[in-house]
Amino acid sequence: MACETVTIGSCQLICGDAREVLPTLGPMDGVITDPPYGVEFAGKRALCHGTYTTFRPGHYSHEDTVGYVEAVVLPILAQCRTLAACVALTPGTREMWRYPAPDDMGCFFSAAGTGMGRWGFTCCYPILYYGKDPYLAKSFGARPNSCGQTYPNDANKIAHPCAKPLPMMLWLVNRASLPGMAVLDPFMGSGTTGVACVQLGRSFIGIEIEPRYFDLACQRIEDAYRQMVLFPIVPLGGQPQQVPLFTTGGGA
Question: Which of 36, 67, 111, 154 sits between 20 and 30 A of 164, alpha carbons compared?
């Protein structure tokens, strides 16, 4: 499968199959990802550009089935664990038990519920942690909690059937990586992890197999960099840096 590569600032975005791309990558500091859940997700009704639209996976490259989780998601996770010192992922609740036993577990809590489960609204959204906490590995001082709090949900404004709220991924990127680290997301989707990395000063490699969502991720991450140019985020003890926004390339 031919791959398209786009570089935006310190983000490298790859449109391709993660199973083929991962063996070509070098070591990463961490993996932060939101893989498919295996719940046969049908879609969502979202407010985009002032109009309510139903977004469905349609011709998306997987059917979000249990079989896909077992045949694709778990092998990709195994590859990621050989590349990165730590992995943080959000597996959903229904098929979480199919994942390897994590080194630790956290969650996001939302009193309003994060979706309907078999026993009512799900208010706890699990996070699986593999490897060593980067705050311990780097002797960074005080550590955040392993659980995130209720977050505003802006995901319904994103033209993707199962985008994550940006505040949620900002918290997880901050929890599972340190400033300046390189973060990998093999299931990039609409690029929310990448946007969080831009805002928090991490470099980013994202892989997405579906071209229409890859294009959406490129646009969102480019927009995030343009926002930084207008309203620079100055790192502790440093100066805002101007970065080139957009280059493209190809790969096999």
Answer: 67
Distances 230 to 6, 233, 237 between C-alpha atoms, Å? 22, 10, 20
Give the domain ranges of the chain. 17-185+197-208
- Which DSSP category does 111 fall into? T
User: What is the separation of C-alpha 165 from the centre of its chain, rounded to a whole number of angstroms?
Assistant: 10
DSSP H or E run through 109: strand 104-109
Kindly report the CATH number that applies to the domain delimited by 17-185+197-208: 3.40.50.150
Chain centroid to CA 176? 12
pLDDT digits 0-9 by tens, 55-91: 444 444 456 678 888 889 999 999 999 999 999 999 9
Beta strand 182-185 with 124-131 is unpaired
CA 157 to the chain's CA centroid:
17
pTM for the full model? 0.78
